[in-house]
Amino acid sequence: MTHSFAAIPMQTIGPMKLIGDINDEVVVPLATYETPLWPSVNRGARTCSAAGGIRVTLLDEHMSRSFAVQAANAQAARAIAQALAQRLEEASLVVASTSRFARLKALNTRIVGRILYIRLDIHSGDASGHNMVTQSAEHLQNWVLSQWPELNYVSISANYCTDKKVSAVNSIEGRGKSVIAECTLPEKLVARYLKTTPQRLVDLHIRKNLIGSILAGSLMSANAHAANMLLAFFLATGQDAANIVEGSQAIDHAEVLEDGSLYFSVSLPNLIVGTIGNGKGLEFVTDNLALMGCSPSADAGSSARRLAMICAATVLCGELSLLAAQTNPGELMQSHRKLERHQPA
Predict the structure, then answer these.
(1) In Å, how far are 26, 107, 131, 217, 275 from 285, measured between CA atoms?
(2) Distance CA 177, CA 268 (A)
(3) Which of 178, 189, 201, 328 is 20 to 30 Å from 170 at the Cα level?
């Protein structure tokens, strides 16, 4: 089997000004075949910087894995779930023994028939935590089976995690980093940079992101194209690109404030990123992480948190710019014809 690399065009956007949990200006690399993405995200970054910056807030962080075991009946499964809840200190020691960084944050159970589903949340330092949490789950599952030998093994991954699939549980409980990026844009800046008005953008958000998503049956998401920015960011920084499946469960929010300004935010409850682990040893990835000030340090977890907040801000810039473009008939396709097909706008 030969080993080679796929070449994907990459450019940097910014500088992007961040405030809140980060106070800095960063340049962000994005790898994509969709060339209009770079100027579009860059327009969002310029607009927000001119307005004072993007406020980023990290709400929570943990990586999850669920496993399943089977009891004799539902009553037996309930008794074991109740007993397990009383032994969280022992469970925490089992998890801590598997890694220098893994620390149990929460343990949740669900029962279907006689099957007991156990979902564990761990802190995973600067790693995204896929392998770390699976190893923790494996050790914890073995411990559970040893403590209650009447149980039978079902699976080390039971889909109550939920990994790389759209689900309600991840959007409610979070998986990876939960981050909100927000900005407030004066009406004059919206007109100057985005060629629209706050009211037109809010109206479009309601009719497209909210009502349109309801019609489509979208699950826990209301955004224009968050997956585009996530994929470009993930490929540039060595992330597991399949995590855009749950990562794109993002919710935009827009409103016109009393002074006529536009408030705009993006909430991402399932942002799975890391600065160490598979894919991070490639030279271009190392360079890109360093460019954003996200090289791993002695303060375990800090670089991954910073990376997640930069990613969320990048998503906001792309969402803001695309929604603005779609308030103007013809603008979206004109940019694609010009930048992708090299045709006159």
Answers:
(1) 16, 34, 20, 36, 9
(2) 8
(3) 201
Whole-prediction pTM: 0.94
CA gap 314, 42 in Å, rounded: 9
Mean pLDDT of the chain: 94
Residue located via tokens 């090289």: 295
Residue 177: name the closest of 65, 296, 289, 273 by CA.
273
Under the banding of pLDDT at 50, 70 and 90, the label for residue 112 is: very high
Report the first-to-last Cα separation within the chain, whole angstroms: 45
Q: Where are the beta strands (DSSP E) in the chain?
A: 10-20, 24-31, 54-70, 103-112, 115-123, 152-155, 176-185, 251-256, 262-271
How many other β-carbons are positioned within 10 Å of the β-carbon of residue 78? 15
Residues 74/78/79/81 CA torsion (nearest 10 deg): 130
CA separation (Å) from 305 to 78, 200, 275, 279, 311?
37, 34, 9, 18, 10
The answer to whether residues 256 and 198 touch, using CB atoms and an 8 Å cutoff, is yes
Rounded mean pLDDT, 259-269? 98
Joined together, the tokens standing for residue 61 give 């962080």
For the chain, list the domains and their CATH numbers: 10-60+177-339 (3.90.770.10), 62-155 (3.30.70.420)
Cα-only R_g, the chain: 22
Bond preceding residue 15 cis, omega within 30 of 0: yes
Q: What is the pLDDT of residue 189?
A: 98
Taking residues 117-129, what's their average pLDDT? 96
Half-sphere exposure of 208 (CA within 13 A, CB side): 18
